[in-house]
Amino acid sequence: MTQAEDLAHELAIEQAHVDAVYARLNKATDTARSAARSGADMYRSERDSWLREEAGTALFERDAFSFQAARRLAELDAEHEGLVFGRLDLDDPTEREIRYIGRIGVRDDDYEPLVIDWRARAAEPFYRATPQKPMDVVRRRVLRCRNDRVIGIEDDLLDAAGNTENLPIIGEGALMASLARARGTTMRDIVATIQAEQDEAIRADYHGVTVISGGPGTGKTVVALHRAAYLLYSNRRRFERGGVLVVGPGPVFMHYIERVLPSLGEDSVTLRSIGSVVSDVVPDVSSDVVDDAATATVKGSLKMVTVLRNLVNLPLDISGEGPSVLVTVKGEVLQLRPSQVARIRAGILSHQRVNLARESAQKTVVAALASQVPADTEVDPAEVPGLITDQAAFAAFMDAWWPTLTAPQVLRRLGDPRVVARAAEGILTPEQQTVLTASYADPAAPWTVADTALLDELVSMLGPVPPEPDAEQPIFIEGGAAVSEFVTTSDTWSRKGEPDVGEDTHATYAHVLVDEAQDVTPMQWRMLRRRGAQASWTVVGDLAQSSWPDLEEVGRAVRDLIGNAPHREFRLSVNYRSPAEVFDLAARVVKPHYPSVDLPRAVRSTGHEPQLLTTTEAALVADLADAIDDLTGEVAGTVGVIAPPSRREALRSALQQRLATRMNPANLDRILFPSPLEAKGLEYDGVVVVDPDVIVAESPGGIRVLYVALTRPTQRLVTLDVGAPGRWRTGIPAHLA
Ligand SMILES: Nc1ncnc2c1ncn2[C@@H]1O[C@H](COP(=O)(O)OP(=O)(O)OP(=O)(O)O)[C@@H](O)[C@H]1O
């Protein structure tokens, strides 16, 4: 047979099997629907009307198995990628065996596997077998399908000495074919081409902490997502009930990865950007606004824990000497001076949380006032507390002195330099205090990503907001001390409609997966750990890509998380994203600054060296437009334009106008303008990095953020210096520079 005939023959064989799988699933779907219709409630799942594996006790196990598969089929259909993607031809000494591997497992009427779930043990050789250690596999085959049609085949011969009779080898290898494909705007799963070192990390034990590290493009993110799917498969009861939380750097990244788990048939994982983790305890707060470098550094530091604790303990009015309280009981004047009131507050807050301590604060004040009633008065001592608390002046004092506090109210107080001076005294330098105050100067400014971790910290310091009957608003404080400063700096003072801090229960999960962990600040780690007090963890990152200035601090945060828990580490060593030519340049840029950088091996070469261009300020927009235009012609997928934050908006609007007049609209949609931080974790077929020196200057991560930008292309890289060749080029060989 010719090669083409071989291929046609093999495609027909595989199509027949895939047809059998879909026929079985269609049957299961029909049966499941009619069972659901017949009102068999015991078989209903909590989430929808499909039958659950666990609930189907009265069914044969094979039916439950297929029902579960049918339930997931709806998700998978949307992906247009094949349900069945692999085949193993095994040759053990006794017989030849064929195993089909797919996104879900399906069995035939006799409970024989038609397809094995990729996460099952029997599928392991698909990922682990090598020519050196074939694990009885003679031929590994990857099937490319579009919906239910088989459209391509890629084979690896793993055991040339095995029985290869009637086993033609087709194609040139699935991995390379997959890597060369154009990229769209969302990440694809890699279930058909997971490599052995990746598979080990995916299937690692779940207890304690699993750390996955590796350079750019080594598949850390995609591996971590497959691991989440694997954990759900191998321990569904535990992880589906307890929940799996996946945290990534920002909404753009979350959008990029959001289809991967559904394409693996998993829809029960919670995805959150780091700026939206807090939304379970401070509803409506979710941010993708990034502070400037100096502010982010202050807000991310552990020093803020003490600053916030001081802030919570600080009297609400710091302009005067503080409130006093004065009541009369049967003609007796009872009063506490401001210093006495302040002492009581400090004493209570040393061991109780504000929102839980109002009752004991009131009791303490009442007791101190009652003790002033002379022994010889006629009043029954048991009645004194009631006589005090019944008075409007006392109620007003309590409301002003001890209002229920919400985290947003308290954090906004940092807009007042006097408050910052008191709360941060001896903790932050005067410069840091100025930076902090400035960032809260505008009470209407949106919360930033760094603020969300501070809000989360405050929620746990303040305690839950108690459900309150409609209380009177505070009117005045004895002695004229007003609370107006507090009211005006808070945009959420009104009790009606204020963002309710809610229960003190942060949502907790059985497994927390943290991607781009090198950028998680110490304050953010505290926020994440509240979500996983009993959880096991997967932590994914690459120190060389960190935007945080203090790498030692990043390492310490992960060591603290591990503590005494069991843990394991995996290092991924192959860069599947960047062509070798591009990665070589990026490595030369980062290495001198960061000699211990973990540089992966780039497996693919395109033959295209990066283009290092220089332009002038005046010609920047025109030259950039030309570079983008060229790239859209050279690559089939996306083009990313990564410019320094200070230039980004102006460039984007200038370019949009210019490009709209000369490019076809379909190509315009392929062009994206991420900020250097947003580009983290993402990839584009072509990338233009604009003004690299300024990207370095504007980020606390410096050169490491440029390294991130340079490692985003899957095909072509262009850099554009403005004015003169940038300093970042120092050390790059002449033929490139
Ligand atoms: N085994 C594989 N088969 C096919 N593609 C793969 C494989 N492993 C990784 N890739 C692809 O390589 C690219 C990089 O993967 P991913 O984004 O997960 O890397 P990363 O290590 O998280 O990168 P970075 O640190 O730069 O964010 C993705 O397009 C991914 O699909």
TrEMBL record:
GO biological process: recombinational repair
Organism of provenance: Propioniciclava flava
Lineage of source species: Bacteria, Bacillati, Actinomycetota, Actinomycetes, Propionibacteriales
Protein name: Helicase
GO molecular function: 3'-5' DNA helicase activity; ATP binding; DNA binding; hydrolase activity
Spans traversing the lipid bilayer: none
Claim: rRNA-binding is one of the keywords in the record: no
PANTHER family: DNA 3'-5' HELICASE (PTHR11070:SF45), UVRD / RECB / PCRA DNA HELICASE FAMILY MEMBER (PTHR11070)
Binding site for ATP: 214-221
Entry keywords, A to Z: ATP-binding, Helicase, Hydrolase, Nucleotide-binding
Boundaries of every UvrD-like helicase ATP-binding domain copy: 193-579
InterPro entries attached to this UniProt entry: DNA_helicase_UvrD/REP, P-loop_NTPase, UvrD-like_ATP-bd
SUPFAM superfamilies per UniProt: P-loop containing nucleoside triphosphate hydrolases (SSF52540)
Organism domain of life: Bacteria
Entry GO terms, CC: cytosol
